């Protein structure tokens, strides 16, 4: 069974072009394989806030949002503790007051929350809701745990891609700064008849004296000599 689910998840990944689309598909799949449930939501934490980034069925989004407003509930417990939480009957549930009464008023009697990306800064939960009590007692959790694991892997991959892009952007900025500094060093070498090391020392000293960033000082120098702002040509060999 797990092998079949692996094939399905691979197909889902190939058919979607965004993390949100992939998680929407996982929510649909989780709901489809849990007939007792009428709603499924995927919650993620971002910068201290909780968001339902994917949902399927009719009940999940409202119940998720209620827990966010209370800052408590089985969804957030699973997210924070990295543990599964099953509520057999909201009607007799004493935890997370007043959430259970709200769930009953919305027509939900039981729920199941599984952790996603536990103990990371993008931790989340896969949440299933049912209008009947004790709906998940006989549920085969293996497939649902696999879906939660696939969501964890997708989030980790997305984070690595984002980190790599940030690094690439930082590197590009550094390359452009180096290019402008190199141009300014060349100007000082020509004006002072000195080598590159001394020219760089002159620029650095002027930067410290004027309390101006070295890159900005060099840009102003190149602009004043060339009559226009310098062109960012990327990294060039250091003199």
List keywords for this structure.
239 residues; alpha+beta; 8 helices; 5 strands; disordered C terminus
Describe the secondary-structure layout.
Blueprint: H1 2-15, H2 19-32, E1 39-46, E2 49-57, H3 60-70, H4 74-81, E3 85-87, H5 99-105, E4 110-116, E5 124-130, H6 141-192, H7 196-210, H8 214-226
Antiparallel strand pairs: 1-2, 1-5, 3-4, 4-5
Helix pairs in contact: 1-6, 2-6, 6-7, 6-8
Amount of helix: 55-70%
Number of H/I helices:
8
Order of helices and strands: HHEEHHEHEEHHH
Shape: elongated
Low-confidence stretches: 233-239
Distance between the termini: 63 Å
* Major sheet description: 5 strands, antiparallel
Taken as a percent bin, the fraction of beta residues is 5-15%
- By secondary-structure content and strand pairing, the structural class works out as alpha+beta
Please provide the count of β strands. 5
Strand order of the largest sheet: 2-1-5-4-3
Mean pLDDT: 84
Using only C-alpha atoms, the radius of gyration works out to 28 Å
